[in-house]
Protein: Fumarate/nitrate reduction transcriptional regulator Fnr
Amino acid sequence: MDAKCPHNSEVNCGDCRMNALCLPLALQAKEVERLDEIVQRGRPLQRDNHIYRAGEEFRSVYAVRSGSIKSYTVSNDGVEQVTGFHLPGEIFGMDGIGQNRYTNSATAMETSSVCEIPFNRLQELSIAIPTLQRHFFQLMSMEITNDQHLITLLSKNSAEERVATLLISISNRNLRRKLSPTRFRLPMSRADIGNYLGLTVETVSRVFGRFQKQDMLLVDKKEIEVLDLEKLRQLAN
Amino acid sequence: MDAKCPHNSEVNCGDCRMNALCLPLALQAKEVERLDEIVQRGRPLQRDNHIYRAGEEFRSVYAVRSGSIKSYTVSNDGVEQVTGFHLPGEIFGMDGIGQNRYTNSATAMETSSVCEIPFNRLQELSIAIPTLQRHFFQLMSMEITNDQHLITLLSKNSAEERVATLLISISNRNLRRKLSPTRFRLPMSRADIGNYLGLTVETVSRVFGRFQKQDMLLVDKKEIEVLDLEKLRQLAN
DNA sequence: CGTCAGTTTGAGCGAGCTCAACGTGAGTGG
DNA sequence: CCACTCACGTTGAGCTCGCTCAAACTGACG
Structure:
């Protein structure tokens, strides 16, 4: 496999391009090596492949190496709720720690690859490397504040504000990965966007339409070009 | 101060009535003693007193000993969002870990008392007592899944379902504390309920009205009697 | 070239919002 | 002890944003 292939599984944490965003973030070279020893790099996943399903025994948390992953729950009455979109460098699966079972299911939204981090090993390592313990507490806390942002969004904001907020979030996360904040491809369908934001597909489609008419966006299927980032930011607040 | 006073600050973790629900949950007697050494028991708080405010430096997480606490965020445009209600035995303040600043503010909804747990000390202790580390990871994870339940509720459920879900949640948490699951006093105002559930005060009031007309509840101001727990459960799903 | 999933567009409807009025009870001062 | 206030809660009437249902469009893939 080509070293430049984004789904390459031959790299280790020290060489991984997501290095500066991912779990190694706060660690020293020597510590990264120890982390690297417990990380299992998986084969590439095809679209709609599951990484885990709700109810399965929790063993590991995961980091996105390439592609994009969505998390979702299914309630008693069978209604799905998308709870998160995960981009390269981001960690997911922490919902499983509490009950020792995943409460979410996770699937690839496109061809993707993930790193598996066995949680027992991570806990042991966190005792040996307090920085790692702290860092992981921080990651979980940020997941909490993220979820609370979404709660506020769903509780208080209009359809346009919700869509704008998602676009700004993706734009910001792209910036962090040194990608263009104004030109990107949405990895998820309109249905996923609507589900995540508590809107119907039709409403999402209409909002995109309005944003285009106001010369704020250029939308071509999943390709997005943000023409007026400032106006979009204001809407997202 | 009377040993039976619920706001008594003279007890230690080993003797505290919340013992079986709170942080000590998974610990052995000897370990509880060590936890006890770092816990600071505060003076009783009056209604509307703040424990901390959003933006303040994060130092500690807190446990409710008596009374009830609400967490809320304020967005850029000044809109408040209630993010949680905390009852005795529950931990709050974990949102501050990620950025080393609280993202929520926390106030007492009635006369209350809380235990302050300095986070640096808790981290150190977590290294010495792996069970504690695990337990705290679990607590944070359960905060995540709680928030995700709320996300689903806001995204997919009607006003009646939302109110029913809140009532069932409080009922269940009362049961855990060996209190009646069918007769209790809501510590929060209608405005807080509405804010938390993404509804207006008027809608909350009307839903309570409808529930009463259907002989599901008996509502007298903040006093609630659940007459048909099963029907309420079904609505809450 | 037909099929099928995903998306867009249109028309009408309804749950919950807004605005406004009124009720209730705890606290305060005469 | 009553009159007044003020926060909180209830009730009513009308409106609106986003939903529902239905139809048409697009492009990828056989």
Observations:
- Residues 189-191, 201-202, 204-206, 208-209, 221 of chain B lie near DNA strand D (CB under 10 Å from a C1').
- Chain B touches chain A at residues 73, 75-77, 79, 81, 83, 94-99, 103-104, 123, 126-127, 130, 133-134, 136-145, 147-148, 150-152, 154-156, 195, 197-198, 237 (CB under 8 Å).
- The two ends of chain B are 43 Å apart (CA to CA).
